TrEMBL record:
Annotated GO MF terms: DNA-binding transcription factor activity; transcription cis-regulatory region binding
InterPro entries for this protein: Homeodomain-like_sf, HTH_AraC, Tscrpt_reg_AraC-type_HTH, Tscrpt_reg_HTH_AraC_N
Gene source species: Duganella guangzhouensis
Keywords: DNA-binding, Transcription, Transcription regulation
Protein name, entry field: Helix-turn-helix domain-containing protein
Taxonomic superkingdom: Bacteria
UniProt cross-references to Gene3D superfamilies, sorted A to Z: Homeodomain-like
GO cellular component: cytosol
Length: 307
């Protein structure tokens, strides 16, 4: 049985390293499309996380890890175990760390040419629990799809919990915080899993990042175009090409940010609404329920009746 982390609930951001969160929710939630902007490791403490996309489905139960490569959208369901809330630790790594881990993996015995020669099957296996000490091209081929480590080494689980604890402590030296994160990535490499460094971000990814960095700002197509140094017509054309509109993408980003804060902090719902760009609590609740089928309060409180 895992010891559930009892640290104060807040999202922690470490510049140049990434972000971490202790997620908790009191009611099952289905998210039809969740964009993963950074390479992410999720340690499930209680309940089950199910991720689906690309014609595949990945299930991760209590004690397991699920690895989510950056740059793709997935459907996600967090399921409760009886009356107990779903809980997980989420680590989202900055690309500079991922790039450093790629160099380390090469030094451990799998060069880029070998990794690129790995088969699609070995690179995209949806649920692999590789044994520690794996070597060769299959061990170091970058992930192109989620991967489940159903029974990770105890040391790896402890390393994830240690990163969360160290990143939360504001007095932790940056060198220690970085070393702890690199330890997790080395553990993953030893178990046959490595995230791919980010390539040049797409226009849509750059726009998402812009909006997510300041969701409360009164964004519109004109202001976003100026920030990205393109014309408003170009911005609208590129969004339409990818099946998006400015208003739709902005709402998606704001709701995703709000959902993370609802799960990972104890902030008041009304404050989360304002921080994510919604006019007030009532407006936020309507938009949230329209998207996810339950209100923000119902997500946190399983005793709150669903209307």
């Amino acid at each position: 049985m895992l010891t559930v982390v009892q640290s104060p609930r807040r999202c922690t951001v470490r510049e140049g390293l990434g972000a971490s969160a202790h997620l908790r929710q009191g009611r099952e939630l289905f998210v039809p499309e969740l964009y993963v902007g950074q390479s992410t490791v999720v340690l499930v403490l209680a309940g089950r996380k199910t991720v689906f996309g690309q014609g595949e489905l990945w299930r991760c139960d209590e004690g397991g890890l699920i690895l989510l490569p950056h740059g793709a959208s997935y459907g996600v369901t967090n399921q409760l175990n009886g009356d107990a809330p779903y809980e997980a630790i989420s680590l989202m790594f900055d690309d500079s760390l991922i790039a450093a881990s790629a160099e380390a993996a090469t030094a451990m015995g799998a060069g880029p040419s070998a990794a690129s020669a790995a088969s699609d099957e070995s690179r995209a296996a949806p649920a692999v629990a590789a044994a520690p000490g794996m070597s060769g091209a299959s061990a170091f081929a970058p992930l192109v799809a989620p991967r489940v480590l159903a029974a990770p080494a105890a040391g790896l689980r402890q390393a994830v919990e240690r990163v969360r604890a160290l990143w939360m402590e504001p007095h932790t030296p940056d060198q220690i915080a970085r070393h702890a994160a690199q330890e997790v990535l080395v553990w993953l490499a030893l178990q046959g899993s490595r995230f791919a460094p980010a390539t040049q971000p797409s226009f849509l990814a750059r726009l998402r990042a812009l909006l997510a960095a300041a969701p409360a700002q009164p964004w519109n197509a004109a202001s976003a175009a100026i920030a990205l140094n393109v014309s408003e017509a170009t911005l609208r054309r590129r969004l339409a090409r990818d099946g998006h509109s400015m208003s739709g993408l902005l709402l998606e980003v704001r709701l995703s940010q709000a959902m993370m804060l609802l799960q990972a902090t104890d902030d008041y719902v009304g404050q989360i609404a304002l921080d994510c760009g919604f006019a007030n609590h009532a407006h936020f609740s309507r938009m949230f329920k329209g998207r996810f089928g339950i209100t923000p309060t119902q997500l946190r409180d399983p005793e709150h009746a669903v209307a």
